[in-house]
Amino acid sequence: MHTRKRILVTGGAGFLGSHLCERLLAAGHDVLCVDNFFTGSRDNVLHLLDHPHFELLRHDVTFPLYVEVDEIYNLACPASPIHYQFDPVQTTKTSVHGAINMLGLAKRVKARILQASTSEVYGDPEVHPQREDYWGRVNPLGPRACYDEGKRCAETLFFDYHRQHDLRIKVARIFNTYGPRMHPNDGRVVSNFIVHALRNKPIILYGDGQQTRSFCYVDDLVDGLIRLMETPDEVTGPVNLGNPVEFTIRQLAEQVLAQTDSRAQIINEPLPADDPRQRQPDIGLARELLGWEPTVALTEGLEHTIAYFRPLLASAAE
Ligand code: NAD
Ligand code: UDP
Predict the structure, then answer these.
(1) Which residue has the least CA distance to atom 37 on ligand 1?
(2) CB 188 within 8 A of CB 80
(3) Which residues are bridge partners to 246 per DSSP?
(4) Is it the case that residue 173 has pLDDT exceeding 90?
(5) Which residues does the annotation mark as catalytic?
(6) Which ligand 2 atom sits closest to the C-alpha of 252?
(7) Please, are residues 16 and 75 in contact by the beta-carbon 8 Å criterion?
(8) Over 70: is that where the pLDDT of 17 sits?
């Protein structure tokens, strides 16, 4: 029998959050989307505003929130390096105070709570591919630390609330995910490359482009998040969610140029501080616990993403 749940999605007007809200509504739940619109926007959920089971609330998770819900997906936090480094103190506050507030809420209403953690908790890893039992190599003082350490502290809080207050927690470590509704100025590599390629503007490759990432299409990722939330109480994670197929950033640039038929040049700029050299998830645990693995290959995911950006950029240019 289907039971309608009341589900809170923080950061629900962002890239991942908006897809998650859509999927939860389609599954027949009530969705409360909370966002302060720092990197997300109403446009991402405009098509959901008339849905009778959807509610949008402007709220900053660094402040307490009093609502009645059964489940919480905690996604609020800027995810792109240029945005999370814009106001690093606020980034740490969002991760840490945001986690405390959402955990406090979960405790009061006895909700299940899932944290959108990140592969950044592994830092610039010396273990490859990364498994959940690897503790990571993060520079606590560098420009990425506000995000990496904020997310690490949030994980600590989740596990302390679990041990101390018996909270039902789920921690997902998300690896680079891309797809429609990334902001054109988001700054992350997939959207940057597509936007520049479609405008025939130079694609900027940081460093020599030999650093690697593994790119997961948004639909696969959202499926993994929902499966993790639905696991029995004893499953807490952390669980890696990402696509294990690894590419160099140069390969990604060439692939985007080919799929957009672009005349854009590739130019090189210095590698930003603490940019991880390699990243690939070991998803053995997700396969075992969730029966999950990505199904969308990079070429297909890029096709969908390019198809999203093409008309968007054309209308912006008019
Ligand atoms: P995004 O920037 O599009 O979404 C983040 C959302 O959180 C935005 O809508 C933003 O306005 C909102 N937000 C930020 N600070 C807030 C605050 N203080 N209060 C309320 N809302 C706030 O990024 P995304 O890619 O959708 O990422 C969603 C979550 O997943 C983030 O927590 C991110 O760290 C995590 N994650 C994403 C990826 C990825 O590749 N997309 C990888 C690892 C982890
Ligand atoms: N990158 C790049 N050009 C860009 C944006 C990013 O070469 O226009 C590189 C960046 O230095 C990093 C990789 O692409 O090595 C992924 O960057 P992103 O910001 O998407 O995410 P990260 O995994 O570093 O958090």
Answers:
(1) 79
(2) yes
(3) 214
(4) yes
(5) 147
(6) 14
(7) yes
(8) yes
User: Which has the closest alpha carbon to 155: 210, 113, 213?
Assistant: 113
Give the whole-angstrom CA distance, residue 111 versus residue 109: 6
Q: How many CB atoms lie within 10 A of CB 210?
A: 13
89: how many CB neighbours lie within 10 A of its CB?
8
- Which pair of tokens denotes residue 287? 């396969």
Cα 178 to the center of its chain, rounded Å: 9
β-sheet bridge partners, residue 170: 114
CB contact at 8 A, 54 and 48? yes
Q: Rounded to an integer, what distance in angstroms lies between the CA atom of residue 314 and that of residue 318?
A: 7
pLDDT in the model for residue 318 = 67
CATH number for the domain whose boundaries are 6-317: 3.40.50.720
- Does the global pTM surpass 0.85? yes
Q: How far is the CA of 61 from the centre of ligand 1 (A)?
A: 12
CB 144 within 8 Å of CB 120: yes
**Which residue has 């003082």 as its token pair?**
141
CB neighbourhood size of 138 (10 A): 22
CA of residue 265 to ligand 1 center, whole Å = 31
Q: Within a 10 A sphere around the Cβ of 201, how many other Cβ atoms?
A: 12
